[in-house]
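Contributing new complexes? Match this layout with 2-phosphoglycolic acid.
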Amino acid sequence: MRKKIVAANWKMNKDLAEANEFLSNLMQFVPSTDVEVLLAPSYTNLWHAYETTRDFPVEIIAQNVHEKPSGAYTGEVSASMLKSIGVNRAIIGHSERRQFFNETDEIVAQKVNILLQNDMKLICCIGENLQERNANKHFSVIKNQLKNGLFHLHDSDWSSVVIAYEPVWAIGTGQTATPEQAQEMHAFIRNTISEHYNDSLAAQVSILYGGSVKPQNAETLFTNPDVDGALVGGASLEVNHFIEIIQAL
Ligand code: PGA
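Output block (do not edit by hand):
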């Protein structure tokens, strides 16, 4: 059985006091045991969030990681640094990283490797932009992102991989993919993995949907057989909304 996951991506939001307030509210709510709850605050809040939620079933994860193990990369944070403070997973390939920080598929693949070398897990984001969808290129874009970012992995590595399908046109726009669009692409992703590897490996990979997930649309998205949860941006900043999305899964 693959895992059901709801992950919060706070992006560049919430200072320490705001993070603290959110966490104390979240901890009054005990998520159902079959949903994994992940939360990605900014680097500055990682250690505090980790310490605060030590005895609570939420995993604190990073929004990014640098692809090199260490060295002269001013302003960057390595996988081993994250690991040393109890963070065992990072989001990579987010469309904002791809768009504003030139994170290419090649860099994504390097980030995958450095995380696995450190025995860490990852959420790899993939997604097409509006122009690509309108030109009917969305399937080939996704296939390439999978191929270039992840298909060098060995079968055994895949237990550390979660995929987030995030159509760029749906991120922060309020324009969610329809449940049919989400299911169609999630099934395509699973098939593509299955073609490259095998059915049973593909059946084990959790594929999250991301892009304007809200309490109002979460339940319908989650009824799709290939949607195993969500990566939530805007709606994860409000604790009640985040909890409602967890409860919808
Ligand atoms: P959104 O962001 O929920 O605000 O659309 C999702 C994401 O970028 O991960």
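Reviewers usually confirm one structural detail per submission. For this one: The CA atoms of residues 236 and 242 lie 5 Å apart.
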